[in-house]
Design goal:
2 copies of one chain form a homodimer. By secondary structure, the first copy, chain A, is of the alpha+beta class. Chain A contains 7 helices and 10 strands. Chain A has a 4-stranded antiparallel beta sheet with strand order 7-8-10-9. A 3-stranded antiparallel beta sheet of chain A has the order 4-1-6. A 3-stranded antiparallel beta sheet of chain A has the order 3-2-5. Chains A and B meet through strand 3, helix 1 and helix 3 of A and strand 3, helix 1 and helix 3 of B. Chain A binds a DNA duplex through helix 6.
Chain lengths: ~200, ~200
DNA sequence: CGTGTACTTGATCGTCTTCAAGAGCGGTGG
DNA sequence: CCACCGCTCTTGAAGACGATCAAGTACACG
């Protein structure tokens, strides 16, 4: 989905990985969100028409499309479902805030650890983890654009996490070797993801 | 509004300035949003109950409170108003994304300029600008927590914007001396704020 | 077997942080 | 009234973290 375009439907990501990103004039790119299966996205364009960012697939993806017209009808019929959709966008915002904190106030080591933690718990709820391992089809270049650092530095931070035997990251396969230490480095608290269920 | 609390109402900020922030274990603080009069906030707690961040007043504030119970009734009665409230949270998220880009990929000079631009156009729509001037009751310490840099560096970036005669910033009074240059430094495009009206 | 991409490592450079100290200002209490 | 305190802003100096430049390795693909 291109920046500036006006999509007429939103979508549930059924399979695959995607990111939201923005590109600056000099070509620098910043990834502002990573979407995993189970994420509903594109509600931005449902309410605001024009995209202010791009959505890019990292892999082949399967989507369940939801036409804006259908969503509008849904809204007039079900307050409950409206709340749930709205809630997904609120959680997106909460995640953005957590990323802002990570960008602004965490070391790149802690930031990276935080991302590894976040993706682990998000993938766990959709059963895409295998013990303490999961797959994340992202290159170090893209990871650099996510963390807001250079690709070279991403590599060095990864080296140091590996050296400490906190994680193993080979190709697209991540394994957490020491969860407690990882959480400690990341200062990770999953509350912002609102994963535990509560009456809605 | 304290992090972790469970407010029972949301609010329209009628007068005054407030910020959303998160504090890390070592005391480092990150401000993730600045609210100006006309902003509706606290919808996070309407849908998710527990706050994942704090809201702090920068000045005395006047609020118009909206009880969650009343909002729930409103949702069941008016699809249109629901859309508008939802939309404010979507714009919050879009702003968070723009801030993420600024944090990750802009120089601190550009980041600062971007913030000055954003607040100018947001205050302009609520008629709180006077020509190219506006008031922003924020200290350099708080500004540092917003931009994710040290207070000392904020001061130096401000000096350089002043030296170039791009802005004047005395106490709480900001005046833009060279809008074109400021926009150029910031690479500012207000599209993400969705201020131009469009059928909703 | 050649090419492109991702990953890795080393060396140098610049931005921003940290530490430190001083100036200006408003508020408080002796 | 004025000395003192605390906070903000300012400036200098040294140092850390991350960027950039550069080169080499590994691997998939045609």
């Amino acid at each position: 989905v291109a920046d500036g375009s006006r999509p007429t439907s939103s979508a549930l990501l059924v399979e695959g990985f995607a990111v939201r990103s923005k590109v600056l004039a000099d070509g620098a790119r910043q990834i502002t969100a990573i979407h995993v299966p189970g994420d509903f996205f594109g509600l931005h364009s449902f309410l605001l028409k024009q995209m202010d960012h791009s959505v890019v697939a990292l892999t082949g993806c399967r989507l369940a499309l939801a036409d804006h017209e259908a969503l509008r009808r849904l809204m007039s019929v079900s307050t409950h479902l409206t709340r749930l959709l709205w809630m997904t966008t609120i959680i997106d915002a909460a995640t953005h805030r957590e990323w802002l904190v990570a960008m602004g106030r965490r070391s790149s080591l802690s930031h990276m650890a935080h991302l590894v933690c976040e993706l682990f718990v998000r993938l766990q709820v959709v059963r895409l983890t295998d013990g303490l391992s999961y797959r994340l089809p992202i290159t170090q270049r893209q990871l650099a654009d996510t963390l807001g650092v250079s690709p070279v530095h991403v590599n060095r931070v990864l080296q140091s996490l590996r050296a400490e035997k906190v994680i193993s990251w080979v190709s697209t396969s991540i394994t957490i070797l020491n969860w407690n230490r990882l959480v400690e480095i990341a200062e990770f608290d999953p509350a912002y993801l609102s994963l535990r269920s509560e009456a809605r």
